[in-house]
Every structure is written in structure tokens, then in C-alpha cells.
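Exercise 7. Predict the joint structure of the components listed below.
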Amino acid sequence: MRLRGRRRGHHTSGHHTGEHHPAGTRDHAVELRDVRRSYGRGGSAVHALRGIDLALPRGSFTAVMGPSGSGKSTFLQCAAGLDRPTAGSVRLGGTEITGMSENKLTALRRSRLGFVFQAFNLLPSLTVEQNVLLPLRLAGVRPDRRLARELLAQVGLHEHSRRRPGQLSGGQQQRVAIARALVTRPDVVFADEPTGALDTVTAAEVLVLLRHAVDALGATVVMVTHDPVAAGYADHTLFLADGSIADRLPRSPAAEIAERMTRLTGRVPAAAAAALAGGPVR
Ligand SMILES: Nc1ncnc2c1ncn2[C@@H]1O[C@H](COP(=O)(O)OP(=O)(O)OP(=O)(O)O)[C@@H](O)[C@H]1O
Ligand SMILES: [Mg+2]
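Solution:
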């Protein structure tokens, strides 16, 4: 199946996807420019993101790792238009979303973004196929049952399309969620710990599927994960520490990714020690 070839007109016209544009234009699915996000004000403010600069090409698979509290969820929320940065700008599929009205943002999220969460978030009263079609209904697009069936075949669940989520295993439910995330042929799929609730074998199936969505269907995936094995499926891994990108790796074996993580978390005891000693934490 070629999701790329069926994308809406403004994506498929060749002159938009070619190499003739300078960097920072339409061939990037996600662009963040000096994105900052603080909670609270003054001395007690928490700086969850301290200036993130990033441009992710279409058709790429990015993993985001970092110690607890480093800003991964805040990053994902800001990049996906679920939260508003305190400063900086976010572009999705070439569209500037900074300052966009809440209604427009909601419409953009529904039609041009896909989401996969740790907890699957399927609707229990709908069948598998109805769950996959839900984003189209919400976006006011005519539900394309053939596309739903094609996607369910891609994730190996075509025979289960009439079941309810409660009749599926965790891994199968997550595969439905991935089919659902792809059904609008989104500019970006954002995944927050998609394998966090799965055993190792099932997690691998889900990761193979995300990889397949990128390689065969032309999807762009941004995945937050704590698991170096999961990050090993991505084209590159970004490491957040204290709200900044502290490191990055091209596609690497899990052991190497784990080693980088250990280096990052090695800083945490130092910060904690400073806090205990009454000194500045940052
Ligand atoms: N609503 C909020 N109000 C105040 N502080 C917040 C809020 N949300 C997040 N923070 C703070 O921002 C920082 C980054 O949080 P974030 O949830 O992005 O971390 P994370 O990397 O996703 O961590 P984890 O791996 O534990 O999920 C933390 O210091 C957190 O306490
Ligand atoms: Mg988090």
C-alpha cells in the first residue's frame, strides 16, 4: 500500500517535496525553533523546555529519550500542538501552528496528526474497524472502509475487524491504535511510550510495525520511550536532559543507546547532591 501516493494534493505536488527548497521548508514534517516551556513564574518557575531546535524530515523515525523529568512529555505535547510553548515556534507539515486558534489546532490535530499512547485509548464500545475509522469521522471525512481494512491487514488484524478491543490482547490493541493513527495519512505520528505496557515480544511486534509505517507507508514517527531497545528501531535518537537536547545518535544498537542514557543519568546524582547541599540545582 502506498499511503504517500494517496496524500492530499498539497502534499503530493512534486515541487513541494523536491530538494530545491532551502532547509526549513516543506520537506520537514516537524520543525521546532527555540521552543521553551516554563511552568509558573519567578524564582519558583520550572523550565521544562529550555530552547529546543529541531527539524525532522518527512519519512523519518525519531526516538526521544531522557531521564524522568527531562521534558520528554512536554516536548511531545508542544510538538503535537497539545500544549502551547512559552516561547518559540512549531511548524507541522510546513504549517506554523504557533498562535493558531484552539479550533484550528484541534482540526489540524484531527486531520494531520496521529497519536499512539501507552494505554492504547481505544473506545471499548466500538468495533476494531470503527475504532480505526474514528479519526476520519471526527475530522468530518467520509469513512473509507477499504482503507481501514487495508490498514488492519497491514497490522495483521484483518480477521479481527468486527471484534471489540476488550476481545484483543494488549499488543493487538496497540496495533489497532497504530492503524487508527495512520488512517488520516497524517503528517506526523506522535507516540508516547507505545511499548510501555507491553511485554518484550509484543513490544517488538509493535516496533516492527512503526518501522514499517515509516519505510513502506512513508509515515513520519516521533516516539518518546524509556527503552533503548525501542529507540534502536528509530533512524535517530534525541536525548533530552534538563529541558535541552543534550545528545543525539544515528540509528544504533540498543547497547550503545543505553550507554548514552547512562551517561546522561549520571548527571542526576550531581544535581541531587547540589540540591541537598542547598546549592543551585541547575
Ligand atoms: N503542569 C505542570 N506544572 C508544573 N511543572 C510541570 C508540569 N508538567 C511538567 N512539569 C515539570 O516539567 C519538567 C518536565 O516534565 P515532563 O513531564 O516533560 O518530563 P518527562 O521527561 O516526560 O518525565 P517522565 O519520564 O517521568 O515522564 C519536570 O520538572 C516536571 O515536574
Ligand atoms: Mg513523561
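Discussion. Strands lie at 28-39, 46-57, 61-65, 87-92, 95-96, 113-117, 188-192, 221-224, 236-241, 244-250.
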